[in-house]
Write a structure and sequence with these properties.
Strand order of the largest sheet: 4-5-7-6
CATH superfamily of the largest domain: Trafficking protein particle complex subunit 3
Radius of gyration: 19 Å
Number of domains: 2
Order of helices and strands: HHEHHEEHHHEEHHEE
Shape: globular
CATH architecture of the largest domain: 2-Layer Sandwich
Structural class: alpha+beta
Number of helices: 9
Largest sheet: 4 strands, antiparallel
Number of strands: 7
CATH class of the largest domain: Alpha Beta
Length: 220
């Protein structure tokens, strides 16, 4: 209840609500300059509004990855764990879309997940190191991953299942879809392979995705 009250207070300001709505509708990371043009305020005022939204847990602040000269920008996007509240599109709509595709095309959940992973890998490949990209995908979906590295083996302990309501009644479908998604990402990005997904109780979290760094082939 406390979190809801904090969020409601942050969104109670009309300008802040407009900024939040713009970030949601953009469906991507947004910079301060773009938001300044949208609301017609100066940069400092927009930054103050963004600070309140960030403190309330409504948006996530990241630093721009840039290869060209210049200072990286601060970028803002919808917090993944807020998806589905305050009129924002929820994670379940994404899940429903993939499951609908599986039924329409006569595919299994793991297979459609792998194909989606390949598509996603093609979109993000080269923007960061493969392991960072896979972790970013899990963060973006609201899994709260914790990385544990042991040599070539890399475990991600998922503290939260954003699809717990569905996973309670059909854990096989939800887990297989996400296993396929991880496999597709690893295959598309290269340098990693997925060993297994160890499922736990969806409401408590704690599922474990086990990956392994692949050794580069020797020349000759």
């Amino acid at each position: 209840m406390a979190d809801v009250q904090v969020e409601a207070h942050a969104l109670g300001d009309p300008t802040r609500y407009r900024i939040f709505g713009y970030i949601v509708d953009a469906g991507r990371s947004v910079g301060v300059a773009e938001l300044t043009d949208f609301v017609g305020l100066n940069h400092n005022a927009v930054r103050q509004h963004l600070a309140v939204l960030k403190q309330a847990g409504l948006v996530v602040e990241t630093l721009e990855r840039r290869e060209r000269p210049g200072r990286p920008r601060l970028l803002y996007r919808l917090h993944p764990e807020v998806a589905g509240t305050w009129g924002t599109p929820g994670a379940y709509s994404w899940l429903a879309g993939l499951l609908s595709e599986a039924v329409r095309r006569g595919l299994g959940a793991r297979q459609v997940g792998r194909q989606h992973g390949h598509r996603r890998a093609a979109e993000v490949s080269g923007t960061a190191e493969p392991l960072e990209l896979i972790e970013g995908e899990m963060v973006g979906r609201g899994f709260r991953p914790e990385r544990v590295e042991r040599g070539a083996r890399v475990d991600f302990v998922l503290a939260r299942c954003p699809f717990a309501e569905v996973a309670k009644s059909d854990p096989e479908t939800v887990c297989q879809l996400h296993l396929g998604l991880a496999e597709g990402l690893a295959e598309g990005l290269g340098g990693l392979s997925v060993e297994r997904l160890v499922a736990r109780d969806a409401e408590r979290g704690g599922c474990r995705l086990v990956l392994r760094r692949e050794r580069p082939a020797r020349a000759g």
